[in-house]
Amino acid sequence: MGTELRRITDGNHGVARLTPAPDHGGTFLGMPKFQKAVKHELELNVQRKNMRNATTTIRNKRALRVSESPDWEELREAATEIKNRVSRHLDYYLEEAEKSLTAHGVHVHWARDGQEANQIVAEIAQAKGVDEVVKIKSITTQETDLNEYLEEQGIAAWETDLAELIVQLGHDRPSHIVVPAIHRNRAEVREIFLREMKNYGRPAPEDVSENPPELANAARLHLREKFLRAKMAVSGGNFVLADTGSLVIVESEGNGRMCLTLPDTLVSMVGIEKILPSFDDLEVFLKLLPRSATGERMNPYNSVWSGVTDGDGPQEQHVIFMDNGRTDVLADQVGREVLRCIRCASCINTCPVYERAGGHAYGSVYPGPIGISLTPQLRGVEDAVDRAMPYACSLCGACNEVCPVKIPFTDIILHLRHKVAQAEKADRFGADAEGTVERNLMKTAGWIFGDAKHFEAVQVATRGAGKVLKGKPLGPIPVPVAERWLKYRDVQAPPADTFRSWWKKNRQEGK
Q: What pLDDT does 151 receive?
């Protein structure tokens, strides 16, 4: 997506093509963990101002649209129940979706991970003999670094969403799942268009201003030649309807509609959790999604298509159902609730940590509450970046309140913090850390509290320590765990006198 763009003359259509940078500097791979990355992001004053203005505007719009909906809580509850039903019977609905799609002439593929999904897309492009594709905004393809993979195969992937285009031309990374260029302001967008558009197609007008309609028109003219030339398009999917075999994409600009109608071949990469049981269920989500995502009553473009129709739209269609860690999430009784997510980003827009840190600090295409509760489950907690994510949270609970499908983010984040702690403990003490360190501690505690004489004996030792320390706080103790714990905490010295000894002196019967 954000790889270094190099100009290469293409004899077929005379425009530049995207090629990957050697170090994949535009992806999130190799980034430092949140605690380190955020220090740099917090120094970007212009970006912080951009983020604050944008998230405040979106939050206010969402609040207004929600206030207009007297049945908002009923819609949230209905959506939650629908998505829970999908999770309970995901195998059934996936098979039903495959049958319905196949009946409509769609080729269905199954991908275990991102690498396999990317390979399927590339093989289809190579089989069709194309060296470029137009793309509808898709967070799923960003999750797999599809653009970078295609570029390695000599295939240019053109982003057609306005915000994605800004990010791509700016050699940048997305910082939001709905508004990828939320960290950019108008002046920055104008500079990017003037500097980069001419290298990859129709240039922006030299006199283009910072006025949004002018910038949008420059993007429209730049993309139009790509729409008219492209033979293959790649999309994601907001929803897949199991009973009708329909795919659904909601958007605000119309670029998606161009990709869905003009090319000869359409490939849609979707996560296996994007299933809805029936067409009737779609009504609930088309009310929740636009209000939660962009503060609109409904999206300007709602595209629903059911397979191939002779002479109308792409004549060859492929759907790739991708796992990429989702079945592992489904197996976790606490973590699985995050699979209800409909990618509206309302949790991101309300998160005080995200607003100040920015999306680039997270080390994932999924920032904010959804990122820190989903990414460590998809990728595991072996890497330092993924271990750091659950701690990028103040546990304020604002995300729980605005989520349209009632994901309990704070519960999941605490659950993941426990997983991280267990993984770090295993690294330090071995795979049986749970069975050695904690078990021995509990046995010791049981011996102490299981007999009053044992408890009193221990108190004799603590009284001695209290007399030696004379009220001074505990300092470093030459024991690894205690030393690390006390490094950041002040712990008062044990008292020189205990309650038991005081009672014997002052409250003995007969005195």
A: 95
Contact (Cβ atoms closer than 8 angstroms) between residue 197 and residue 228:
no
The residues near 410 (Cβ < 8 Å, ≥ 6 apart) are: 393, 395, 397, 399, 400
SS3 of 404-454: CCCCCHHHHHHHHHHHHHHHHHHHHHCCCHHHHHHHHHHHHHHHHHCCHHH
- Could you tell me the CA-to-CA distances from 239 to 135, 243, 275, 409 in Å, in that order? 17, 12, 6, 22
Q: Which long-range contacts (CB under 8 A, 24 or more apart) does 58-64 make?
A: 58/179, 58/294, 58/295, 58/349, 59/349, 59/350, 60/295, 61/294, 61/295, 61/296, 62/291, 62/292, 62/295, 62/346, 62/349, 62/402, 64/295
> Average pLDDT over the chain, rounded to whole?
88
What residue has token string 């995502």?
293
- Is 70 exceeded by the pLDDT of residue 434? no
Separation between Cα atoms, residue 79 and residue 403, nearest integer Å: 11
Tell me if the domain spanning 72-130+231-343 has CATH number 3.20.20.70. Answer: no
pLDDT at 8 over 50: no
> Any idea where the domains of the chain sit in the sequence?
72-130+231-343, 345-450, 451-506
Bridge partner residues of 310 (DSSP): none
Question: Which of 10-19, 29-38, 246-255 is most confident?
Answer: 246-255
CATH number belonging to domain 345-450:
1.10.1060
pTM: 0.82
Exposure pattern of 182-210 as b/e (b: 16+ CB <10 Å)? bbbbeebbbebbbebbeebbbbbeeebee
